[in-house]
Amino acid sequence: MTEKAPPTVEEQVLAVLRGTASLLAKKHVGSRYWGEEALRRTLTIKKSDIHAHVAKHGLTEDSGVRRQAQEGICLVRRGDEWVVFYQERGIPFEEGRSSDEREAIRIATDLLIAVSGLGWLED
After folding, report:
1. What is the CA radius of gyration of the chain?
2. Tell me: the pLDDT tens digits for 79-118?
């Protein structure tokens, strides 16, 4: 059985940002492959594709990044800087800080990629 053509770059990027990359992979390769193998056969994008999409469209509400302190990845303004952290069970694990919002969004996007198990994507 021949594999389908990969989903479009936009479909792939949105799936990563929305946390639905595994569902996209299942649609693409079916039940022949699981986990990382299915993702590697489906995702042809690079980290730069995700960053370019975020630079153009911003981090939308349905991405895995929150603009207030709560569970998950958070991007919060504190004084003169932006703080990016992952929070679980009320405990924040700081990842980065920047006075530049665009750089903070980049840090948050990198963290989202990493916690999604997609750190293997090429730059």
Report:
1. 15
2. 999 999 988 888 888 789 999 999 999 999 999 898 888 9
